């Protein structure tokens, strides 16, 4: 049982494999955090410290490690919840009113001392993954409307100062750039205000105490939300660091009607006392087993970079034939197949097949793809509409807008107000119709602009993404075999919310194989490899203008779920042969890549090696990259991870076979030397 309770002291301990998270109720009825860290078996060891003011200027509320601080009284720190009652009172005064346990979920019940308003704090323990999940539900039991101005999903207390905070920054084509900064006095805020994008920051926190991959304490949490989020990290004046995450309160106001309940997105959180690697494994395993769709992901071909908007049935058939020849299992027609879609300015909203491009509809292409025993996928951008489209002419009132203002376009398009019943129905019906009419296995759902002018209702920022989740959930009920890819101008929608709704995730429009090493490295800290789509594309790369040998491009893309986005009609014989060989190899090893344990391996050389390892049931892979060989041209010594000490392993390297023990490989390591620029290798290691 992952939940221990000391009933006489009202102390609760969430026990996962190696971690304890402990809190309790004090004599004032305040819920106070007592501990988060390495496992402490005995709950009896914990008691509730008596609080004393530092001075009258430092009220006890400021010092109290509250589990869920609300706005009101002498509290000036970040609160998680702020409401306005119908009489305009803005102060919450909660009192503990008991707990419930449902299976592995602990529910702490708090109630306002005057108003009929309940706050329930939910905690789930995922013992084997060493993770806990937190979320909050609030219920208005009164007969009046209550306005919610801010609601975060939880607050964590870390008993240290001077921690390192890491997250990613970036923009389109440059997502997932990891940064680390020292936490000092004051606050760090990461957020998203665009409604649609996580290009800039990502809804998770990692706080470490000078950790490495394998040593040091790490506290982390990932929010299950694809819309506007905020995360606040604050080193307080009282010797600790607070973190909270949840729906962004920027331009947010939600009305809770009488008897209405609201449930926040959850945070999956954990602690490691031995570095980032364990954090990654716990999150990856949890996501693979509990969030993501089961099964291996197919090798995909996507026509976007090859044709952009200039799609035609004949050319797509030719591409499909070539895609089959090199070994692709899924053929995806990207943007441009519908309406008057010849560029970014028109077509969105008019989801009929363009008869100039596909004179006999999509069927001839789909038949060809299916006859070749491939899956068929198609691109859509359902939340958007172009001003020139028929849909917009018929329903100008369907977009987010303010009556007195000119509506913003971005990429030549408006955002549909999917929170309107009729718009939601339109999108559902359009996709249902597409999936019912055609034999489609895969939908690539794109979203290419941020939201703006989001109407008079301020909760739309949140409701928009909820509506998208609903539509996809509904479609999956009727079309359970269809895979959905989440894409938003590249990696604009990557988070733990979307992982549970969609099945495939476009990491970035940046397909430069060298840039991708950095993007994929950062991505891997939190997100499972199965959720990292990576394509091989043409050179010079459209974005970086860089020219990289094809083998390196494949190896870089083989680190995730492999796709090809080249104009394969232009491939010469050597390129076809190499593609065939590497795609075949990928299919043989993808179970290790997509479902194994992933390791970021230290490079001990002064030369620029990037090294990654995957392990699954006695099979291991080492991906080694040397983008540019530096003067000295040294090799590197690779100490493998996660092997069995006393087992023997066979290593296939440069056409030779070596046999070494796990002990040797993990401690002495393998000497590897690659030569030249853009050198790469995949080394296979098997337990004997
Ligand atoms: C942005 C996506 O990230 C690309 O892969 C492609 O689908 C384009 N949109 C199409 O407009």
Automatic annotation (TrEMBL):
Transmembrane segments: none annotated. SUPFAM superfamilies: (Trans)glycosidases. Signal peptide: none annotated. It comes from Clostridium saudiense. Residues 616-683 form the Glycosyl hydrolase family 36 C-terminal domain. It catalyses: Hydrolysis of terminal, non-reducing alpha-D-galactose residues in alpha-D-galactosides, including galactose oligosaccharides, galactomannans and galactolipids. It is an enzyme of class 3 (hydrolase). This is Alpha-galactosidase. Its EC number is 3.2.1.22. The keyword Plastid does not apply. Residues 29-257 form the Glycosyl hydrolase family 36 N-terminal domain. Belongs to the glycosyl hydrolase. Keywords: Glycosidase, Hydrolase.
């Amino acid at each position: 049982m992952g939940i221990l309770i000391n009933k006489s002291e009202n102390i609760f301990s969430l026990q996962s494999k190696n971690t304890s998270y402990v809190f309790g109720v004090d004599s004032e009825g305040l819920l106070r955090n007592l501990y988060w860290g390495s496992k402490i078996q005995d709950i009896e060891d914990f008691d509730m410290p008596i609080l004393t003011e530092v001075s009258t200027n430092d009220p006890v509320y400021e010092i109290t490690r509250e589990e869920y601080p609300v706005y009101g009284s002498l509290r000036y720190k970040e609160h998680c919840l702020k409401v306005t009652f119908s009489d305009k009172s803005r102060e919450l005064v909660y009192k503990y009113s008991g707990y419930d346990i449902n299976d592995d979920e602990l529910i702490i019940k708090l109630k306002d001392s005057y108003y009929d308003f309940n706050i329930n704090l939910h905690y789930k323990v995922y013992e084997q993954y060493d993770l806990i999940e937190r979320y909050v539900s609030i219920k208005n039991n009164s007969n009046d409307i209550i306005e919610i101005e801010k609601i975060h999903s939880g607050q964590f207390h870390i008993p240290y100062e001077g921690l390192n905070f890491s997250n990613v920054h970036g923009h389109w084509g440059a997502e997932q750039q990891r940064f680390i900064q020292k936490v000092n006095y004051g606050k760090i805020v990461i957020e998203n205000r665009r409604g649609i994008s996580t290009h800039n920051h990502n809804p998770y926190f990692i706080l470490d105490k000078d950790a490495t991959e394998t040593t040091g304490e790490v506290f982390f949490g990932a929010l299950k939300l694809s819309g506007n989020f905020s995360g606040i990290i604050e080193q307080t004046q009282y010797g600790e660091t607070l973190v909270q995450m949840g729906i962004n309160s920027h331009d947010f106001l939600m009305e809770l009607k009488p008897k209405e309940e609201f449930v926040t997105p959850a945070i999956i959180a954990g602690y490691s006392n031995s570095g980032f690697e364990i954090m990654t494994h716990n999150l990856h395993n949890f996501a693979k087993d509990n969030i993501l769709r089961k099964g291996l992901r197919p090798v995909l071909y996507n026509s976007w970079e090859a044709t952009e908007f200039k799609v035609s049935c004949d050319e797509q058939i030719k591409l499909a034939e070539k895609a089959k020849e090199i070994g692709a299992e899924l053929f995806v027609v990207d943007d441009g197949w519908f309406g008057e879609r010849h560029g970014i300015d028109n077509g969105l909203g008019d989801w009929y097949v363009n008869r100039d491009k596909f004179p006999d509809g999509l069927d001839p292409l789909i038949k060809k793809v299916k006859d070749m025993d491939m899956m068929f996928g198609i691109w859509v951008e359902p939340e958007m509409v172009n001003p020139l489209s028929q849909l917009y002419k018929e329903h100008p009132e369907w977009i987010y807008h303010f009556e007195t203002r000119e509506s913003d376009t971005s990429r030549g398009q408006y955002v549909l107000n999917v929170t309107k019943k009729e718009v939601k129905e339109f999108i559902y019906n359009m996709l249902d119709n597409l999936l019912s009419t055609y034999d489609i296995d895969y939908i690539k759902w794109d979203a290419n602009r941020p939201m703006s002018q989001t109407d008079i209702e301020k909760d739309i920022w949140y409701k928009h993404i909820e509506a998208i989740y609903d539509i996809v959930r509904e479609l999956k009920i009727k079309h359970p075999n269809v895979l959905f890819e989440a894409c938003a101008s590249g990696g604009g929608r990557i988070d733990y919310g979307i992982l549970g709704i969609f099945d495939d995730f476009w990491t970035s429009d940046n397909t430069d194989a060298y840039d991708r090493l950095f993007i994929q490295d950062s991505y891997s800290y939190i997100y499972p490899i199965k959720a990292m789509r990576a394509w091989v594309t043409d050179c010079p790369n459209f974005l970086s203008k860089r020219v990289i040998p094809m083998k390196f491009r494949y190896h870089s893309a083989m680190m995730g779920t492999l796709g090809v986005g080249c104009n394969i009609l232009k491939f010469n014989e050597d390129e076809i042969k190499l593609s065939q060989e590497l795609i075949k190899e990928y299919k043989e090893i993808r179970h290790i890549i997509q479902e194994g344990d992933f390791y970021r391996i230290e490079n001990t050389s002064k030369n620029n090696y990037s090294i990654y390892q995957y392990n699954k049931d006695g099979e291991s892979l080492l991906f080694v990259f040397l983008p540019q060989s530096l003067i000295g041209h040294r090799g590197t010594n690779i100490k493998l991870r996660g092997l069995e000490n006393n087992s023997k392993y066979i290593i296939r390297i440069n056409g030779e076979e070596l046999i070494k023990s796990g002990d040797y490989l993990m401690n002495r390591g393998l000497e590897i030397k690659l030569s030249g620029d853009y050198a790469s290798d995949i080394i296979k290691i098997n337990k004997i």
